[in-house]
Specification:
Layout lengths: L2 E11 L5 H11 L3 E6 L5 E8 H11 L7 E10 L8 E4 L1
Parallel strand pairs: 2-5
Antiparallel strand pairs: 1-3, 1-4, 2-3
Length: 92
């Protein structure tokens, strides 16, 4: 397995539209681990880890998000793969 870890910031109408819950569902379907949370400035932040192709599928979803969201920008930072997560969680 080729592991990948991406730290992502999503801008737009991404709060109040079930973005975090939908992302958790998509991450679980894609078998990636990490977390997602809302930021006070209106963005959503997430860390996604897993097999490269599965991380890429989850990142692709982030560019559209769930129905009701309007994604304006996705900023991604590649980080060193750490395999530190056992699941994908919503941070409140």
């Amino acid at each position: 397995m080729t592991g990948q870890r991406i730290h992502v910031f999503i801008t737009g109408k991404v709060q109040g539209v079930y973005f975090r819950k939908s992302m958790k569902t998509k991450a679980e379907q894609n078998r990636v681990n990490g977390w997602v949370k809302n930021l006070k400035d209106g963005r959503v932040e997430a860390v996604i880890e897993g097999e490269s192709k599965n991380v890429d599928l989850t990142l692709e979803w982030c560019h559209g998000g769930p129905g009701g969201s309007v994604v304006e920008d996705v900023v991604m930072h590649k980080e060193e793969y750490a395999a530190e997560f056992d699941s994908f969680e919503i941070i409140y």
